[in-house]
Amino acid sequence: MDSLIELAYELSNPVAGWLIEENAQRDNDMNKTPPQVQVSECMDVFNRVKAFLIAAQYLNRDNSEKHIASQLIAQCEAEIDDILEKE
Question: Is the pTM above the cut of 0.85?
Answer without folding.
Answer: no
